[in-house]
Amino acid sequence: MTESQSSPIIKLVDVRKSYQMGALTTQVVQGISLDIHAGEYVCIMGPSGCGKSTLLNLLGCLDQPTSGDYFLGGKNVAHLDDDALSEVRCRNLGFIFQSYNLIQQLTVIENIAVPLYYRGASDKEMREKAERLAAQVGLSHRLHHKPNELSGGQQQRVAIARALVNDPLVILADEATGNLDSKSGQEILGIFDELNAQGKTLVFVTHDERMVRRCKRIVRLEDGVIAHDIPGGPAAPALAAAA
What we know:
Layout (H helix, E strand, L loop, with lengths): L2 H4 L3 E12 L2 E13 L4 E5 L6 H8 L7 E6 L2 E2 L5 H11 E5 L10 H11 L4 H14 L15 H13 L5 E5 L7 H16 L3 E5 L3 H6 L2 E6 L2 E7 L4 H7 L1
Helix pairs in contact: 4-5, 4-6, 5-6, 6-7
């Protein structure tokens, strides 16, 4: 058995998340246990308010569980302080957002290099890595353009390159194709296919049936718990709807 088979890259153990609003406690994630191994392509689905975004925030160390344990790369990160969580995010996680979250004043190459800047990388390392990743996502001809000079699909390509620049353990995305037209969305999905074929671990929240057909595993949430955990593939949207 290989290391990736024996040791999950992500392991949640009875993770719960609640929010206190005055005297009212709202339970959003209600006891989720989940293993994700290196190289998986997982889509998290479910109706509005089921806890998808909260779960993604927990996986991304943007929020902390009220109780339970979260092992990322074998290390329990559930209850680290803010500085330690920031370091975990920088070194181990890549984020892709629906709204791209690019810095408007920076060029393509500068946006891609931002995570390296926060790690204290040299100018040479930042330039070389950013140029290589820009080429990987098809933007070598746009290195010195700013976000407002790019299409939505091109901006999302910049966001993907930025997510890859620190060679993270896991790439997380929230509705990564949600703001794109059909053609751009298909192109971005093709990039995700290539990344997964290269062994990248992808965990995405999505309503996009095209993505669901391409992923390898669907985790469907309902009322803060995992209702179904089923294979992805061409029949997945119908299975997920019926599950």
